[in-house]
Amino acid sequence: MYNFLSSFNLSPKAMIVFLSTLPVTELRASIPIGILILGQGVKVTFFLSIIGNILPVAPIYFLLEPVSRFFSRTPRMQRFFEWLFARAKKRAGLIERYEAIGLMLFVGIPFPGTGVWTGCLIASLLRMRFLPTFLAASAGVIIAAVIVTTLTLLGKANL
């Protein structure tokens, strides 16, 4: 795994930020990889993962609609965005019901399919205001970072 990661020619700290910005990995992967594989300290990994995971919030929120509108001109991309939005709407119940608190919980509980990317996509589709979206998503990221770091350290202690 380390050989694969080192093939990107990024420093370990840049790799942590990079992994935490991606929709599939987010900090759910960047924290264990940073601590267990890249050998970075807990505090540095925790901080960089939070920063990296918060970075996509504004672009997702503000660019989702114009980007999807532009790319939906082709039938294949239109089907992709219809699938993406339908999938997001299936998970929107908590956020629809509790808005910012629901978004914070949705982002903060590190289950598959949850996280800042899906949460902000849902917030954008629901037309939530940006500031509450940003604050709730950021709080959720911090909650998720605490949970994932704790689980990583417990797993490391049992290795």
Describe the protein:
By secondary structure, the chain is mainly α. Helix content is 79%, strand content 0%. The protein has one domain (2-157). The chain contains nine helices and no strands. It is globular. The two termini are 17 Å apart.
Dominant shape: globular
Helix content: over 70%
Distance between the termini: 17 Å
Please indicate the count of domains. 1
Uncertain spans: none
Helix and strand pattern: HHHHHHHHH
| Total beta strand runs | 0
Key words describing this protein structure:
single chain; 159 residues; mainly alpha; 9 helices
What is the strand and helix layout of this fold?
Elements: H1 2-6, H2 12-21, H3 26-37, H4 42-54, H5 57-71, H6 75-90, H7 93-108, H8 116-125, H9 130-157
How would you concisely characterize the structure shown here?
The protein is mostly helical and 159 residues long.
